[in-house]
Task: structure prediction
Amino acid sequence: MAILSREFYARPALEVARDLLGCRLVRQINQHRLSGFITETEAYQGETDLGCHAHVGRTPRTAIMYGQAGHAYIYFTYGMHWLFNVVTDLVEVPSAVLIRAIMPDEGQHEMALNRPYRAHKRGWLNGPAKLTQALLLNGDQNGCDLCLEASGLYIENAPLTPDMQVIATSRVGLNSEPEPWKSIPWRFLVKQDGALN
DNA sequence: CGCCAGATCCACT
DNA sequence: GTGGATCTGGCGG
Result:
């Protein structure tokens, strides 16, 4: 499968978030190829979206979201976690898609080593901070270009996941945000047959 | 199982 | 100084 193009990412975050479902997130590191199929995403679009970090405008932290689509926006939160996002839409339109969960595929043993205490349990990659641990992603990869294979971090194309298998719900962790942002259905999940990752 | 507190630090006010 | 796009272990039912 081909690496997703700049054009794919240079669309509104809502479309990108929806279409990323089923695509393969790939991390090449230390001679290993770690990958998993994206099963959950969230869209954050623009300064008017109070759930989006860019609602405070352009700062050193949010500047990456104002840049070219297809780059990684990786930030630190809660004093211990890194979250992985993909910059979307046109330059000067601050928006991104948070990757919240993957179904592990290649390099499962390596990924498990990166998550020593929980790797044997169910749902070991169904959270935005879990997958960054497994894929060894942190601030060092912030701003990295996902359209270049040489980055060692990119997403591969996949057939579009049918609407029948897609669920849209409100985004997670925005409980203190006002409506409509708190409840707007900008979170997308692939319907699973009861089986968690 | 569900609920809750603790961990731990950075960006922004 | 404050609070956060989270996760985990422990405790109670």
User: Anything to note?
Assistant: Residues 53, 56, 59-62, 75-80 of chain A lie near DNA strand B (CB under 10 Å from a C1'). The domain at 6-190 of chain A is CATH 3.10.300.10 (3-methyladenine DNA Glycosylase; Chain A). Helices of chain A lie at 6-9, 13-20, 108-114, 128-134.
